[in-house]
Amino acid sequence: MIGYLDAGSASMLIFLPVLLIGLWIGSGFIGRAIGKPKGLGTAGFWLGFGLGFIGWIIVATMPPRVPQYMYLQPGIIPGAFCTMCGQPTAPSARFCGGCGGPVGQK
Fold first, then answer.
1. CA-CA distances (angstroms) from residue 21 to 24, 27, 97?
2. Cβ contact 29:45 at 8 Å
3. To which H or E segment does residue 82 belong?
4. Which of 14, 37, 39, 99 has its CA 20 to 30 A from that of 55?
5. Which residue has the higher pLDDT, 93 or 2?
6. Could you give the angle at which helices 41-51 and 53-61 cross, rounded to 10 degrees?
7. Cα–Cα distance for residue pair 5/1, rounded to 1 Å
């Protein structure tokens, strides 16, 4: 009979689109997980969401984003930071004002 769907076919018509949409969104979250340690979480999500595994490769090869606060605060030289928590510090500081750890240069 034309147009008749049994229970198995009807459930597959619902299951497959839900599965594909879930995989598509999941691909975005994998891209976010790859990009987040580099400061590229949002870009990683959208690249993974839009391009899939190609977006993951692009995010993995992108250079890390430099935080803007390192350039906006007077008296802080990029590269002067706490070795314990990574917060920027004044060039003359010997200890971090945030955690009390020693300050080093990278």
1. 5, 10, 47
2. yes
3. strand 80-82
4. 14
5. 93
6. 150
7. 9
Q: Tell me the per-residue pLDDT of 30-69, one tens digit each, with 9 for 90 and over.
A: 999 999 988 888 999 999 999 999 999 999 999 888 665 5
* Residue 92: exposure state from Cβ atoms within 10 A (0-12, 13-18, ≥19): exposed
End-to-end CA distance of the chain: 74
Tokens of 42: 């949002």
User: Is residue 82 within 8 Å of 96, Cβ to Cβ?
Assistant: yes
27 with 57: CB under 8 angstroms?
no
Token reading at 16: 């497959």
Tens digit of pLDDT for each residue in 88-106? 777 777 777 778 877 765 4
